[in-house]
């Protein structure tokens, strides 16, 4: 719906990700970039943009951190919907929650690459009594050609 704040990465990195330019491990690209799969966004468009973890990375993680969201209430839970691509077992995508009073990130969702090479979609619901940030982390264990972690069309409900 129109009340959702959508990051499709076509024009720029929406305001939800204020520090994106500092997080150089995630790259905004499209399927024609010559950087391996995915070769299109989740709609099958080769020239449409998405984010993927740099394949140059040797065994590390790339964190994409949102701005601070206000506490949720019963009427306005924070729902986040996103499309993701994880190919090969050495790739993992995690979504974490960091409450402002805590130093640690709580893992609320993760997938490793047992998947075929295809886009999938997921929605998570966050219920937090205090201000929080959400972190999308792509992890690379070993460096192999043609493997990828990518994310596209991240949509935030008005409860976020």
From TrEMBL:
It comes from the Eukaryota. Residues 5-160 form the MAM domain. CDD domains: MAM. InterPro entries: ConA-like_dom_sf, MAM_dom, MAM_domain-containing. One of its GO terms (cellular component) is membrane. SUPFAM superfamilies: Concanavalin A-like lectins/glucanases (SSF49899). This is MALR1 protein. It comes from Molothrus ater (Brown-headed cowbird). The gene is Malrd1_4.
């Amino acid at each position: 719906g129109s009340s959702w704040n959508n990051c499709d990465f076509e024009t720029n990195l929406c305001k939800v990700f204020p520090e994106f330019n500092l997080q150089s491990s995630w790259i905004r690209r499209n399927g024609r970039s010559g950087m391996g799969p995915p070769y299109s966004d989740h709609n099958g468009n080769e020239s449409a943009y998405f984010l993927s973890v740099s394949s140059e990375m040797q065994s590390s993680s790339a964190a994409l951190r949102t701005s601070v969201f206000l506490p949720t209430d019963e009427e306005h839970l924070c729902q986040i919907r996103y499309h993701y691509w994880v190919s090969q077992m050495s790739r993992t995508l995690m979504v974490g929650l960091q409450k402002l009073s805590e130093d640690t990130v709580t893992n609320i969702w993760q997938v490793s690459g047992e998947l075929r090479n295809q886009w999938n979609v997921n929605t998570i619901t966050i219920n937090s009594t205090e201000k929080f940030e959400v972190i999308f982390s792509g992890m690379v264990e070993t460096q192999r050609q043609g493997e990828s972690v990518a994310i596209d069309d991240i949509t935030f409900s008005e409860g976020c």
